[in-house]
Every structure is written in structure tokens, then in C-alpha cells.
Amino acid sequence: MNLKSLSTLELPPTGDFHCHLRQEKMMELCTPLIKKGGCDIVYVMPNLQPPITQVSQAVSYHEKLSQIAPDVTFLMSLFLHPGLDAAAIAEAARSKVIYGVKLYPAGVTTNSHDGVLDIEQYYPVFKAMEEHGLILNLHGEMISSPPAEFAKTDGTAAVTVLNAERMFLPQLHKLHSAFPKLRIILEHISTREGLAAVQQCGPTVAGTITAHHLWSTIDDACGDIFSFCKPVAKTPEDRVALVRAIVEDSGKFFFGSDSAPHPIQSKKGEGRTAAGCFTQPWATALVVGALEEGIEQGWIKEEEVTYKAIENFLSVYGRAFYKTPRSAGSEKVKIRLERKGEIIPEVVKSQDGTIEVVPYGRGKKVWSTTWIE
């Protein structure tokens, strides 16, 4: 497919199987923008304040989101914590709106201070998830080592943001070995090693790839606070591998934006910069644009970029893994990408101006997305 020669591209609606919609005013700003990004189904992360740890909380959150965007399907998740047990997993499965449980290593990203310190502690929970068909979503990073770790002389590498994903991968293999029927997703893969680890696992393991990791490297993250996310973007070689994973169409990877809005003050204010890139309103366009960039750079060939590979990555594989196929008749609904000179704005604001979010890729020219129904 010669993307450069196309002025329009019609696709099934995108499924975003990893996104953050926050709460209160930020939720009210971001949730209506899901369909602008070409998405009709989203898997919602539970790391709110306080985190979504109970079924009743997830159901209530689902109701709020559905009221804001009734034509979007919301799949909910629980935050893995010590109070979660086999009975709660059974209750979650009965809810029909909760599809998985998110494992955050303690302290690795936004609102994860109550995350996991000992994975084996949760083996009874994983067993129950395996039995009830819930998905385990992994934030695949080890906790960064304290400064004292850098003085080690035993050859053990200290954990930093650059190797945290690679250092976590043995945990993925260990979990898959212990629970071979448990569906596991290595979320927001940022490295070649992460891609290879998922490929080495059986069919119950998959991985998500974000739009911003298809565009960014560590140099971008260091040079622009609005490109800083967790996991951080890695090397140019890692970026190329992620782009190639889409066109190789192995069936192991699908789209999860990890769109993570933060108020502008949290990104550029005093103290630690909030980790997250806001991509939701341009999700589909950024992915297609990254493939176009890959062709221009010579990372992939025009003939490798097929309509089927794009459709599979954006729409088919994620729905299949989550067992949420499109309903009868919905195959007639499409999205259309067109070259209209749309530019990602410098800021997205709430109607009352109290919330301002700087989107990833601000100033970038992208395809415009419209709906055909």
C-alpha cells in the first residue's frame, strides 16, 4: 500500500485496549474525544485517586463514562491490591463490565504507589482469574533501584527507566509458565526485547503498542516534557521494531493508546513531571502516520503495509483477545481518514477553561478522522 498516494483511507473503528480517562473534570473533557480518535471501544485503566479496587467502584465508573459517551463500549478493570481475592474475581466476572485486572509494580507510574511489591503473593488471585476468564494486564517495568544500588560490585545491574522493561520480562515468562491458560497482556511495549518476549510465549499472551512509542525515542522524551511517559520511549532501533511489528502482522500485538492526560501544571510545574502522553483524539491518525513515516524512512516497504495488517492491529486482534467481536450489523460502520491539513493543537481545554492538556504531537499534521454510518 502506498499511503502517500492515498487521499482517503476507510477502516473499521479502532479498538483502544489501554487508555486513561481519569475522573471528574478531566474525565468530562477527555471521554467525549474518544470517537474523534476513531475508537468505539476502550479498555479503561483503574489507577484513579483512590484506585478502582472494588467491583462496585468499577460499575459506578462504567455508568459515569457511559452517560458521557453512550455510543462507546467501555471495558473496565480492577487495580491489583492486597484486598483482591478469589471471591472478588468471581464477582468481577459476573459484572459483565469488568474484563481484567491491572498489575502496577509499586511506584512505577501515575497513582501506582499502592501497587504490587510481591507478585507471588497474588498467585491465588491469578488462579481465580484463569478460571473466570479475566485478563491480567501488566505494567511491565521493574521498580527503579535506589541510589545505593549503583554502588553494587556484584555485577547486578541497577534498574533505571531505560532497562526497567527488559528487567521485568522474566516475570512475564514466570507468570505464563505458572498460569498457561491465563490471558496476559504486556502493556505499552517499548523495546525489542519486550516484543520478542511476547512472541516467545503461547497464544494466551499478547502485547499492546501505543501511538506515541511509534513516533518517539528517548531523545524526544528528554527534550520535551509532553513526550515523557512511562515506560519512556527507548532507542531508534526499538522504535523501528515497534513499527515493523504492525506490518509483520503476527497476531500477537494490537493497539492500546495508553493515552494519559495530565493538567499542564502537572507536566511542567514544580516537582516530578507527570508521566503520560495524551493522544486519544488523534489515536488512529497517529498510528497510520507512523506507518507512513516508516515507509519514508525506509524502515518498512510500501508493499509490507497492507490494509489487512492495519485493520488487524487497530481493530481485529484486540477485540478477539478480549472476546468482544463487533455486533451484527456494525460492520457497516466505518471511519474515514482524509488529508485535510489538520494540525494537532497546542492545547486542549475544558469549556470553562479550568483544565488544560497539552496533546502529544502538538503542531504535527495528521489525517482527519470522520465516521461513516
Describe, in plain words, how this protein is organized in 3D:
By secondary structure, the chain is an alpha/beta fold. The protein has a single domain, classed as Alpha-Beta Barrel (TIM Barrel), CATH 3.20.20. Strands 2-3-4-5-6-7-8-9 form an 8-stranded parallel sheet. The chain is globular. It starts with 7 loop residues before the first strand and ends with a strand. 47% of the residues are buried. The mean pLDDT is 93. One of its GO terms (molecular function) is dihydroorotase activity. Keywords: Hydrolase, Metal-binding, Pyrimidine biosynthesis, Zinc.
Which tags fit this structure?
3-stranded antiparallel sheet, alpha/beta, 373 residues, 12 helices
C-alpha-based Rg, rounded? 20 Å
CATH class: Alpha Beta
Low-confidence segments, ≥5 residues, pLDDT <50? none
Largest sheet: 8 strands, parallel
CATH-scheme architecture: Alpha-Beta Barrel
CATH topology: TIM Barrel
Cα separation of the termini: 25 Å
The general outline is globular
**Annotated CATH homologous superfamily:** Metal-dependent hydrolases
What's the order of the H and E elements? EEHEHEHEHEHEHEHHHEHHHEEEE
The domain count comes to 1
Strand content: 15-25%
Overall average residue pLDDT: 93
Number of E-type strands: 13
Topology:
Layout: E1 8-11, E2 14-19, H1 24-30, E3 39-44, H2 55-68, E4 73-79, H3 86-95, E5 98-103, H4 123-132, E6 135-138, H5 164-178, E7 184-186, H6 192-200, E8 205-209, H7 212-215, H8 218-223, H9 236-248, E9 253-255, H10 264-268, H11 283-297, H12 307-322, E10 334-343, E11 348-349, E12 356-357, E13 365-372
Parallel strand pairs: 2-3, 3-4, 4-5, 5-6, 6-7, 7-8, 8-9
Antiparallel strand pairs: 1-10, 10-13, 11-12
Helix pairs in contact: 3-4, 5-6
